[in-house]
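Researcher: We're teaching a course module on how sequence relates to structure. For the next exercise, students receive a sequence and then see the predicted structure as tokens, so they can try to spot secondary structure elements on their own. Here is the exercise chain.
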Amino acid sequence: MTTVIQVKGIKKTFGEREILKDIHFEIRQGEKIGLVGWNGSGKTTLVNILAGHIEQDQGSITTWPSHLKMGYLPQSTDCPITMDNIMVEAKEDFFHMTKRMGLSKDLLQSEQSPYLSGGERLKLSLANIWANHPEFIILDEPTNHLDLHGVQWLIDEVKSFAGAAIVISHDRYFLDETVTKIFEIENGELTIYEGNYTAYRLEKQRRYDQQLRDYNKQQRKVDMIHQQVNTLKNWSDKAHKQAGKGGSNSENRQMGVREFERAKAKKKDNQVKSKLKRLNLELSKYGIEKPKEEASVLFQFENAGKRGKRVLEAQGLTKQFGDRLLFEESHFYIKHGERIGVIGSNGTGKTTLIKMLLGEESITKGSFWKSESIKLAYLSQDVLDLPENKSIKECFDLSNREQSSKARSILVSMGIDDSKWTKPISHLSLGERTRVKLAEMILQEYDLLILDEPTNHLDLPSREQLEETLLQFAGTLLIVSHDRYFVEKCCDKLLSIQHKKISRIEMGLSEFLSREQQKTIKPKQNIQEELAILDHKITELLGRISMYKPGTEEYVTLDQDLNAYMDQKRRLMK
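Model: And here is the predicted structure for the students to work with:
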């Protein structure tokens, strides 16, 4: 395959921190690369260098052709897409893409833009990229706000895209379905793994286990040599003592005895030096470092205990923005301790529902009851609302030393070290900002956690740890997320928003999607059965009509029936 991008010796430093250290790689035509690593490891910095948005300190980037046409989706898609910033020649393709994603032209009207969901804005941005036919695409967290339909559309587009692509994503399902190679950035260095995300995790664990075995084997050898050295040193010390002892007059006359002990001690000293020299030489050439254990992230929520059976209940809930109806006449409830996933296509009103629950958005019709005694915490999908000029310490506004110490411990366990405690929020990555907001929640005792896209900016280890922690949380969970793996693991019930209704579903996501798929398969089966019956009738009529002359009464009747069956078949086949 032809190389489209070649990177040699890229280095980048911010202040005293070296983000990227001597990065080398090639990307060939058609390759789909997943770029992974902890939040703040330098993933977005690297793609911004590739896109030409920031300059590297050292190194070179060569592209073929020299003016490679790139499509770039940044991590934040707050800039609105309107008719003014869509290339004229791309408008037809743009509308074709938006139609395939279930969006209408009306969404580009200026009066609609304030009501667009994060997913709708993201779909418009993706459609704009694809409509301009790029040769190379860079996608930074492209699934963060996408619904299940949008994720599947993007999977199909990336897989069928003829050019090369590099994708930063913490969506394991998306990476498994799209990429064939993983670039991992860790401690500023890049390691390449073949295969999708699952293959990468297995290979990384295999490499870790092998290095640990080799290291332990090496250390056993080192210990054995040190034991031999200690034995020789003991013999040497004993020989030195014997050589230095004063004996009787007759013994002193035998000077050869003392000289023998002195020579023996010297020989042992040389053996010690030789063994240590060989050991150090071997370690310098072939020494195996102890593999670094993956940093662990610890989330630990507390809750104040059971508050009653039902914590939320909606009756006849309706929400409308102008002429745009989100949902109407919806009834549902949530009990204490339940784990509810809120699902629905982009723009159906998931975030609006959460805001109505919180009292931040008005109710058009109906009622929304929640227990007065319940204590809830809310994590919004917008992590840009923290005061960027303030430090983490100032954001927490902690009243005593004990709380301050606990906050520091939580942040360190979440991968945010003390060096960032007094730095402005603006210096933190989006993932680090999410962790700061989660840390604020952890410091309190809550009965209900409302999480709106909680994994959007979390790296993969943090997502996995958050899943494990939420499974231990004894309170109630209400989660809006398009991370299929996350919802499947954390939620055993659903609130589904579709056909302008909110419905409570007494099952998890996998079972629900399977049943929905069966609903679409069954009508197709029915259509095939109807077509088979029509074909049989048409064949029968063709045989009968051939027995009569055109223009006769029997011929006209059969011809009318035949045309009716043919029309019915054409309608079914549309």
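Model: If you want an answer key for the exercise: The longest strand covers residues 3-14. Residues 402 and 408 are 10 Å apart (CA to CA).
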